[in-house]
Amino acid sequence: MDKQIGFIMKKILRKIPGYKKIRAYYSVIKGTYSIKYGIFGKAKLLRNFFSDLKNYSKLQENKKFIFSPDNISPQIYDNVPHSQQLDYVYFYQDSWCAEKVFQNKPEHHFDIGSKAEMLGIISQFTPTTMIDLRPLDVNLPNLEFVQGDILSLPFEDNSIKSLSAICVVEHIGLGRYGDSLDQFGSEKAVEEFKRILANNGNLYISLPIDKENKIYFNAHRAFTREYILELFKPLRLIEEKYIYKNELINNYDSERGFGTGLFWFKK
Length: 267
Hints:
Blueprint (H helix, E strand, L loop, with lengths): L1 H13 L4 H11 L9 H19 L30 H17 L4 E4 L3 H7 L5 E5 L10 E5 L12 E7 L18 H12 E13 L4 E3 L3 E3 L2 H7 L4 E9 L2 E3 L9 E8 L1
Parallel strand pairs: 1-2, 1-4, 2-3, 4-5
Antiparallel strand pairs: 5-10, 6-7, 8-9, 8-10
Helix pairs in contact: 4-5
């Protein structure tokens, strides 16, 4: 009933003159990157947008397209002189994981809970199965989806030769994604990874690191390097890298505080 009422309200609002403009401007003020700009910064960017809109409307008309001031979608935070808006953690860790899978060329790769965008890319060069609690409504020839619980994975012992979980382990048991609360969620997830990983199999992991083990409820946990190595015993550490702000480096530095660790383990 609530969805029907909401749908009807939207249809009514769309008929009000200027509704599209108001909605577009509201999205600008509440946009993802708007927090980086004060009121004067936003006003300047909006002024530039209106100037471009006015000048564009004076250009020779391209009759192949319908142009109306009602159909606007301001993207003012893209028109800035500084570097691209980028999540450095996901940029580095997804690139790193894809590189490892490509280098080792498994017959089939399995992933638990990582970003679907990364897995879509990996599936273009090796058949890939994604396991997650949340359904994945996409269709790619080499990408298979299996709905499953990270604490009770639907695989036999020692059966998976290539496995990844990128920025996943730290969330388990904190309720962020609708999972059950569990103070030992991360430890239990790691035990499942070790159980299903085949002998000589490769495991690619990323998770937050810090100078102390910490819980940032209900976002994630952070781990020291020492505790990570303890958790994943008896797996062998093949490679480790660390992301601090916009840098990808080879060495763990506890004095730099919070960061992200990338670990390649082998059974």
